[in-house]
Amino acid sequence: xxxxxxxxxxxxxxxxxxxxxxxxxxxxxxxxxxxxxxxxxxxxxxxxxxxxxxxxxxxxxxxxxxxxxxxxxxxxxxxxxxxxxxxxxxxxxxxxxxxxxxxxxxxxxxxxxxxxxxxxxxxxxxxxxxxxxxxxxxxxxxxxxxxxxxxxxxxxxxxxxxxxxxxxxxxxxxxxxxxxxxxxxxxxxxxxxxxxxxxxxxxxxxxxxxxxxxxxxxxxxxxxxxxxxxxxxxxxxxxxxxxxxxxxxxxxxxxxxxxxxxxxxxxxxxxxxxxxxxxxxxxxxxxxxxxxxxxxxxxxxxxxxxxxxxxxxxxxxxxxxxxxxxxxxxxxxxxxxxxxxxxxxxxxxxxxxxxxxxxxxxxxxxxxxxxxxxxxxxxxxxxxxxxxxx
Length: 390
Ligand SMILES: C[S@@+](CC[C@H](N)C(=O)[O-])C[C@H]1O[C@@H](n2cnc3c(N)ncnc32)[C@H](O)[C@@H]1O
Hints:
alpha+beta, Rossmann fold, 12-stranded antiparallel β-sheet, 7-stranded mixed β-sheet, 19 strands, binds S-adenosylmethionine
């Protein structure tokens, strides 16, 4: 991922202005270690750059939470700022690869695209954690009249699939670089034909990180049409039994199990297990009833929340636990006398979100995109507001 190593410089040179194509919005200093965050906007996309300060050299890099999928935006911002300020660069990896297939940005979607979505295809399926993308590409090529939404948490895999879409000239795949456990919450009820979960990470030592859980199943059954199927494929005995038990607890579904069947395409992971002669299990879970519409359009505003002098001392820094969610104010940054930036994680225990809150004496908001439009996220947001109100 792009970054540059630079000699320390006087950061008061970083002013709110245009640096080439990069608009500098504000900068904020970490109250603990004096690292700095620089908020920028490139081609309409806002994100943070992180100045990590060492003794003799500093690193200027992207911030994980607000990182845009298009790496070139990060490279552009790093290049624009370092060039215009004439920073003393010790090391850099921001060369742009011109001969690579273009990233098909048209097919990259964000959570915001799903607000009041009407799908432009009659049949829509989802693949969770598509990895190398072999299966979703196979489905899209063989079913050109259907839309396939691929949700992948790993950014390089998401980018690789976008390149494949460009190379194969497909128009029926959408890619979302996000945690699928959260994303299902923004999909309308009764709208999906199939959900594929192929070879999910078993997380034997950290089961709370598994994709399959009771709440994931509830959301999956809500978004599936009546008769629609969730298809889990795994090589892990442990994950198979764990998932089956999770599914058996749910009402109004049908469960079918198969062993060592072919699904028409062999993914990278499947090839590995086949070589090792491992068993491969499929569980098909069919939704047997129509679900209620989800509640939409929670309002994530910070109306009435204003920065005050004592606010940063008053906010607790340890995680605050509630019955089915938590909030954790993790880091504090000062922008100026009357403005702060706060890094917060919140939401359900096995599907947390991370955001930055821009808190000023005039207005306050989530920097970048709002949280996922979910009941749990909204409950957490209301508590965050209470704490910020003192
Ligand atoms: C073991 S790989 C399997 C990849 C592919 N399905 C296959 O069969 O080759 C699991 C994939 O799930 C992705 N993943 C894990 N947790 C995820 C989540 N919560 N949301 C979306 N993708 C996830 C990982 O990044 C990884 O690409």
